[in-house]
């Protein structure tokens, strides 16, 4: 079993994610690509002490990048949309 800190990588702070937080009380995080929804839910509940109603995940494919004649690919990442109980807040997003 993974530790809770290794499951959650970082919050996603964009215009779209802050709008989701304001409208639907959903927080968005970058997570470990091998983590499943139950691991993400448990990690968010333990780390931030909130009640999670549901988790939706999305795989973000790595882009092809070139440097002259050499081509490489950025790594595949995973994004998690976490629905929070009404009234619960995550302090990271306060003041954003």
Describe this structure in words.
The protein is an alpha+beta fold. It has one domain: RRM (RNA recognition motif) domain (Alpha-Beta Plaits, 2-Layer Sandwich). It has three helices and six strands. Strand 4 and strand 5 form a beta hairpin. It is globular. The model has no long low-confidence stretch (mean pLDDT 91).
Protein topology:
Blueprint: H1 4-7, E1 8-11, H2 15-24, E2 26-31, H3 37-48, E3 52-60, E4 64-67, E5 70-73, E6 77-84
Antiparallel strand pairs: 1-2, 2-6, 3-6, 4-5
Please give the largest β-sheet. Answer: 4 strands, antiparallel
CATH topology: Alpha-Beta Plaits
The CATH architecture comes to 2-Layer Sandwich
Q: What is the gyration radius calculated from CA atoms?
A: 15 Å
CATH level-4 homologous superfamily: RRM (RNA recognition motif) domain
Helix content: 25-40%
Count of spatially separate domains = 1
Helix-strand makeup class = alpha+beta
Strand/helix succession: HEHEHEEEE
In quaternary terms, these chains amount to: single chain
Query: How are the strands of the largest sheet arranged?
Result: 1-2-6-3
Strand content: 35-45%
- Given the C-alpha coordinates, what overall shape results? globular
Instruction: Determine the N-to-C terminus distance.
Output: 33 Å
Task: Flag low-confidence runs.
Answer: none
Instruction: State the name of the first-level CATH class.
Output: Alpha Beta
Features:
single chain, 96 residues, alpha+beta, Alpha-Beta Plaits, four-stranded antiparallel sheet, two-stranded antiparallel sheet, 6 strands, 27% helix
Quick structural gist:
By secondary structure, this protein is of the alpha+beta class.
């Amino acid at each position: 079993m993974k530790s809770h800190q290794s499951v959650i990588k970082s919050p996603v702070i964009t215009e779209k994610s802050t709008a989701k937080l304001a409208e639907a009380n959903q927080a968005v995080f970058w997570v470990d690509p091998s983590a499943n929804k139950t691991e993400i839910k448990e990690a968010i509940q333990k780390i931030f002490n909130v009640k999670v109603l549901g988790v939706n995940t999305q795989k973000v494919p790595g882009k092809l990048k070139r440097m002259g004649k050499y081509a490489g690919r950025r790594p595949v990442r995973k994004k998690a949309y976490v629905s929070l109980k009404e009234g619960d807040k995550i302090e990271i997003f306060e003041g954003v």
